[in-house]
Amino acid sequence: MELDFWLERWRNNEIGFHQELINPWLAYYYGQMGPPVEKRTGLNVLVPLCGKSRDMLWLAQNGFNVVGIELSDIAVKDFFHESQLEPDVEKRDEHTHYTANTITVIQGDFFTCKAEDLGQVTDVFDRASLIALPESMRKDYVAKMADLLAPGTRILLVTLTYPQHEMDGPPFSVSEEEVCDLYTEHFKIEKLAAKNTLDLEPRFKERGLTSLVETAYKLTKQ
Fold it and tell me: Which residues pair with 100 in a beta bridge?
C-alpha cells in the first residue's frame, strides 16, 4: 500500500475511518480505569497514523500529553481547525511539527520518525493503525514501533476480526493469533476484552460482513 493511497483518501475526503465519537476503549481504560487526573501530567501518549482523531483532543482535555503522527497535512490542519486550536508550526528535516498546548502532531511518514522526534513516550493508543495496514506491512510497522519505544511503554491496541474474504480492507482483519505472532518478540501481551460489534457498524454490514469482533489488548514493551 503506497503513501499516495492515504494522501488521495484525504484529498477526496474519503475518510469513513474517521470517528466523531471518542473511542469507548480509550474512554474506559484511560478515563474510568485510568490513573487519577493528578498523575496524568507525566504521561505522554503516542497516537500513530492519527488522522484528525478526536481521541487526541480527549486525551489532552483529560490531562495527558499527546503526540500524533500523520502523513496528510490536510488531516493535521483539519484536526487543529476543528479543535479550535492555533498551533505553532516548525519544520524539522522531513517532518513538520504542529504544537498547541499539550498536543503535538508530527506531519510526515511514520516509518521515518525517530525516537527523539517523539520525546519520552509512556503510552500508545492504536485504534486504527495496525488494522489500516495490509498484512505485508504489519511486521515492519511492529518492528518500527518496537524501535521507537522504551521498555515499559504500554500500548492500548484495538483490532477488528472478520472473514477477510467478505470485505476488502482497510480496515483489515487482524486475528488474535496474528497479534501474538507480531508482538511476542518485543512485547508482553494481555487480552483485555472482546465484543461483537457488527450491529453497531451498518456500513460494514452493507459491505457484506457477516461477523465483526473488536478486541482490545494491553501490550507492554519488554
Answer: 103
